[in-house]
Amino acid sequence: VYFDYMRSFRVEFDEFFEAGIISEIEIGLGPCGELRYPSYPIRHGWRYPGIGEFQ
Predict the structure, then answer these.
(1) CA 28, 35, 33, 38 torsion: positive or negative?
(2) Does pTM surpass 0.70?
């Protein structure tokens, strides 16, 4: 999924990369890895920490 997302971003903004307008990007998964999947598997007894749950 992440590969597809990044490839799509690169294709969509290709002209900006070629023109040097975008030279670098940094992708984070959030301070607690909110974009991980599954981020907090219930079957492992994990619960979301609460604050920032719906950011």
Answers:
(1) negative
(2) no
